Every structure is written in C-alpha cells, then in structure tokens.
Amino acid sequence: MSAAPRRIVIAAGGTAGHVVPALAVADALRAEGAEVQFIGGERAEAQLVPAAGYPLHQISVQGLSRTNPLRALRALALAAKAVGRARGLLRDLAPDAVLGGGGYVAGPVGLAAVSLRIPLVLSEADSHLGLTNRMLARFARRVCLAFPIAGRAGPRYRVTGRPAVAPQHDRAAA
Asked: What pTM was estimated for this model as a whole?
C-alpha cells in the first residue's frame, strides 16, 4: 500500500524574484509526486503561477511601507486580515507543510501555518534574509539559503543554493 502524496502549499509573491524560485521548487516537488498549491497576492504570482500549471489561492496583502506611516498601518491591517484568510485556506487545503518563498505574501501565510502547527520551511533566494523571512525564521523548521549568510548558521539553516527553473527544450523546433 503506497502512502498518500504529500500536500505542499507555497506562499510567494510580489515580484518574480520570489515567484520564479518558488516555481522551481514546486516543479521539483511535483516531480517527486507531491501535490502543490500556491497562496499569493495579485502581482507577479497572479500570472506566473497559473501559467506554470499550479492552483493559486489569492489573499489581499501589500508591502510594508518604510517611509509612509499611514501606508504602513494600512499594510499591517491588511496583513492581519490576511492571516485569518490564510488560516481558512490552510484548514481547507490541509497541507503537510508550508513553504514560504519570501515577499510580503509569505508573512501572513507563514504565521497562519505556525498558528495551526503546520510545519513551516522558508526559502531565501537572495544573499540576505528579507524582512518577512527574518520575522518568520525563528518559527521555521528549516531555512533554506541560496548563499551562506553571516549569523545564520546552525541546524535550522541550510545552504541549498538558488532554485532555478529547468530550461525547456523543444526538439521539434530544433
């Protein structure tokens, strides 16, 4: 009797810099038999994720303004509401784990996963932890780094390299 496929939810969004590496991880997970779904916002992920063949569940979030206090408060209010929406989605999707791919979308989804005791793994594709990954790192089971980062060592942190989408070759066109 074979085990049921793993269900993984990936939260990544805002820019292609967060979405494209997350899609590379999704492709690798799917190749291993996992069921992969995404939670994201309305920016780059809204086009890239469905085009890659993955379901996308949207939540309303925006980046945290570091220069405009009113916009920062609005972003925090949206993020608080998004945590509730993400909790509902995670309850419905019942994933075995959540992967946070960085960007402000991953914050509410990561907090929702932690509150539901769903294992959280983070992926950082840059040479430093972004704000969301810095905030979530203490709750994550594992933080996968593209590059070694000073002060980020120990069993929780692993240098795994930057995820890259495999090139597609069309033999007929060649």
From this structure: 0.88
